[in-house]
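Researcher: Good morning. I'm working through a list of sequences from a screen, and I'd like to move beyond sequence-only analysis. For each chain I'm collecting a predicted structure so we can compare shapes side by side. This is the next one on the list. No need for commentary yet; just the structure.
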Amino acid sequence: MPTHIFSYREPSPSRPGTGGALSGMKVALQPNMSVRGWPAEAGSKALERYVALEDATVVERLKHAGAVLVGNTRMSELGFGLAGDTTSRALSEGHADCALVTDTLGEARVAAATAGLWGFKPTYGIVSRFGLIGLVPSMESYSVIAANAGVIAPVMQVIAGRDERDFSMPDLAIPEFRLDGNGGDAIRHVAVLKESLALLSPEDGKAFLPALSRLEKAGFSLREESMAEFDLFRTVHQVVGAVEASSSAGKYDGVRYGHRAASAKNWNEMYLKSRAESFGLTVKAYLFQGAYFQFENYDAFEDACRIRARLVKAMENLLARVDAVAFPTQRKGHPADKAETVSRIYEAFLLTLAANVTGLPALQIPGVAGDGAFDPGLQLVGKRLSDARLLSAGARLHR
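Model: Good morning. Structure tokens for this chain:
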């Protein structure tokens, strides 16, 4: 198993007996997902040599269902963006049947679109975050990348569900993940936001047209809708996300675990030097932005939270008129794996941020868009808890 793809390889993956729902399925993880005894450095020097002490809830459930955990793929620092991420390569080269990815800005969907794979971000709150080394708690979630929807559904059936160790989980009725979707609650009416299409170049727009045509041919009813404040998804995510990241990263102080600077004269200097050395430039810039909004411009953070509530309501109102909203997943000229500044990262994920800000489920569907040279992907964002219906709609589109 190539080391340029995996940061850690399980030398002898356990192969449980048959009978589990995922028996024998090879699953790759990221190194911010705790597996007891595995390195859990989350792609950051801040967690240098840290080894997980117990399994994350999701990992426990995968093991119990008979999945074979093959190792950790490489990831961007603390899961912010896709620079250095190798998850899609692990799948494309056959090292795993599916992979779990932290989706903070849309990483699972964009990585999947780039490699012609399926990427699914569930409704926020239906999968426990216990054991996840996170960065932006209110907008990130475990997500699944796989070669087909038929793999994603059983994985979601296993990992979704209440967990008493995650006190942030709302009391939700977890959907049952089946790929029938032919009943009265099937997705039929799909909206396209003119503001999202306006973000596309003429070349990108041309490449996205086949996806819309494919939807219509598969029996979906399309309609154009408008959301006047669509451009604020980026602003809200960046302000709220940076503040949450700054707060989340406060625990990386070099005292209890992770990197500790050498040659410090006292504890205060050790703390300052360790923090300065622990993060890469991109994450450091993001944390500085968050500290600014926390301590110098808190009014802007409060405004962003109020606008976020307004955007959540706007999406709810839109999804009261239709069953799902269709977006391209990526834009040509904004490669996420090459984005290494905060601004460029947000440009690369401009079309996926809405689902993270609102906590709605989103599915990247491969093979239905593109002009031969570039595939922008097709992303469906559905109503809260419509996860199973989204997967069924994707399967229906491919049938």
